[in-house]
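REQUEST ID: PR-0412
SUBMITTED BY: lab tech R.K.
PRIORITY: routine
TASK: structure prediction, single protein chain
INPUT:
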Amino acid sequence: MDKERQKSKPENQIQSESAKKSISRRGFLRGAGLTTVGTVALQSGVLGSPLQDETLAEQSIGPDAALIRLHVNGKSRSLAVEPRTTLAAALRDHLQLTGTKVVCDRGACAACTVWVDRKPVNSCMTLAVEVVGREITTIEGIGSEDDLHPVQRAFVDHDASQCGFCTPGMIMTATHFLENHPKPDLEDVKVALRGNLCRCGTHPNVFKATLAASKKM
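STATUS: complete
OUTPUT:
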């Protein structure tokens, strides 16, 4: 019976079904996983020259590294990353901007906080290809060793760090908060920084530093 049904089917239908069966599970997952990532980078026009001559339908990203451009601290930076590369890894490992720290690596502590379009994000939970074409600001971008930002200076003056791993994320969050809330009280500061965790327990000094910085900004 099965053979008779097979014979009764048009030849093109039989070929189509055969092609479907030949698609492996790995191939399907690879294609599905790269569709969104590829669309983001391709529509932004950020791929390197090897793919620029291909048509949009023929271009793809992964699993190997692709060339992208990120706008970081006011400068355009080119780097080759795999689609899975997080923004934190791209900043630290590819651009040597090691001020951004990775602590929990799961978006729970906010030590890796940077700004994307002036808004704080957890860079350990953000893919590098997701922020192509957007303005990225790291701790290196808000002040320098010779010209500290008022929040950075306040953290030094009020001893608001111990091991220092949470400090960059704290400063990025506190700075964003003060830029939008120039006259906070202690409760405002506590709420604003509630997502940034300090394992050393320096939160009281962090709050003092943030309040002090608000008077300088």
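NOTES: The longest strand covers residues 66-72.
REVIEWED BY: pending
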